[in-house]
Amino acid sequence: NGSSLGMAWRASHILVKHEESRRCSSWKDVEGVKIRARSKEQADEILRGYRAKILAGEAKFADIARTESDCGSAAQGGDLGNFGPNEMQLPFENAVKSLKVGEVSDIVHTDSGSHIIVRTQ
After folding, report:
1. Is 71 a catalytic site residue?
2. Which SS3 state, helix, strand or coil, does residue 100 take?
3. Rounded CA gap, 24 and 16, in Å?
4. Has 115 been annotated as catalytic?
5. 12, 18, 114, 115: the active-site residue
6. 76 carries an active-site annotation
7. Is 79 left (phi over 0), alpha (psi -120 to 50) or beta?
8. Cα distance between residue 64 and residue 112, in whole Å
9. Is the pLDDT assigned to residue 107 strictly greater than 80?
10. How many C-beta neighbours within 10 Å does residue 85 have?
11. Mean pLDDT value of segment 90-98
């Protein structure tokens, strides 16, 4: 449950996959047609729009995650549960560690795609 050495975090994320993602398919795009046609820059632009709406109070993080995230965690509003060191890709873990609880990250790139993250614990 991510409790190694007593260090654990909890976060939610919105993942937008793109042509450079290690797995170019998702629950939203089983064949990966849209994902393969999306550049990394386009994915980042989509996330900038989501982030702006969240920060302006126009939308809730979990609501956008539920309908727009390419991760299976979308069903839980993007919630990834508790995790500890070395359980997530390093850029993701480093971003979560740098956030205050409730803070929304800027865009984070991993092998999975482009993310925005909110630290919840």
Report:
1. yes
2. coil
3. 10
4. yes
5. 115
6. no
7. beta
8. 18
9. yes
10. 14
11. 96
Q: Give me the pLDDT at residue 18, please.
A: 98
Q: pTM for the whole thing?
A: 0.92
The answer to whether the beta carbons of residues 105 and 93 sit under 8 Å apart is no
Query: For residues 111 and 24, what is the distance between their CA atoms, to the nearest angstrom?
Result: 11
- Pairwise CA distance, residues 44 & 106, whole Å: 10
Answer yes or no: is pLDDT of 112 > 80. yes
| Average pLDDT of the residues in 4-22 | 89
Q: Which residues contact 108 (CB under 8 A, 6 or more apart)?
A: 91, 92, 95, 114, 115, 116, 117
Please say whether the beta carbons of 115 and 14 come within 8 A: yes
Catalytic residue among 25, 42, 76, 89: 89
**Of 65, 57, 63, 71, nearest to 28 (Cα)?**
71
Q: What is the amino acid identity at position 120?
A: T
**Catalytic position from the list 18, 71, 105, 114:** 71
